[in-house]
Amino acid sequence: MKTVRKAFDILKLIAEEPEYSYPLREISVPLKMNISTCNLLLKSLVEIGAVEQKSSRQGYSLGPLLYHLTRNGPYRKDISVAAELFLHGFTKKTGETILLSVYHRNQKKRIQIASADGNQAVNIRLQNLLLDDLYQSASGRLLTAYLPPDELNAVLTKYGYPKPDEWMGSDTKKGLERNLESIRKKGMIAIESRINALGLIAFPVRQGEKVVAVVGSPVPLFRFSREKKRLIKELKETAEKISRAISKQKTGNR
What we know:
By secondary structure, the chain is of the alpha+beta class. It is 48% helix and 20% strand. It folds into 2 domains: 2-69, Arc Repressor Mutant, subunit A, CATH 1.10.10; 77-251, Beta-Lactamase (2-Layer Sandwich). The protein has helices at residues 2-15, 24-28, 35-48, 64-69, 77-94, 138-145, 149-159, 173-186, 221-251, and strands spanning 51-52, 61-62, 98-104, 109-116, 122-124, 130-132, 189-193, 198-207, 210-220. The strands form 2 sheets. Strands 3, 4, 5, 6, 7, 8 and 9 form a 7-stranded antiparallel beta sheet that branches. Helix 5 runs antiparallel to helix 9. The chain is globular.
């Protein structure tokens, strides 16, 4: 298992700039990996085509196997492709960034699968999917609020309760339950982060009755207070449009 994790760490690093040729030391040093171990793993990855080395003296880049494995498009294509038009519509109306995220059951983290930034450039991610902790973002907290009880217990078993500096008032069972119930009752979340100087808004995306994703928008605080009501309205409408699109997709209705 340790060997698999190390190989995966190598692939994640190389995927940050998939066409750049990474010298051996630029892989082993940031990963704090023994250079001979790293070299052996890279040779194995080259043999199966996951990594490419054009000559014995050149660095390493992503190989054809990984491009082949991603030929079917983005992660959770059923959601991200259906949402693309509406993500673009949000940025066109507001000029703000919007993120589409889902819960990754195996990693028990939030995974960002698509985004549209303030310059209206839509980016559905094929590689470098962003995984982060559930507790530290508005979207992650919203996803946590709608987890089935058994999955929430699994998250708590793996990570414990949020620390006070991660999510104030959620470091006990009673406190977390109260905060999650408050989110479900409101059907959204809007918070201000003085540390990051951001206002954060998120709404659930549903497929039928089930929450399958969330849309969130991080907004600089100096604009957030002025535009909060309008942004909440636009983000809510965007979430509802995506929900209708993927629900029709599931049932086959037109």
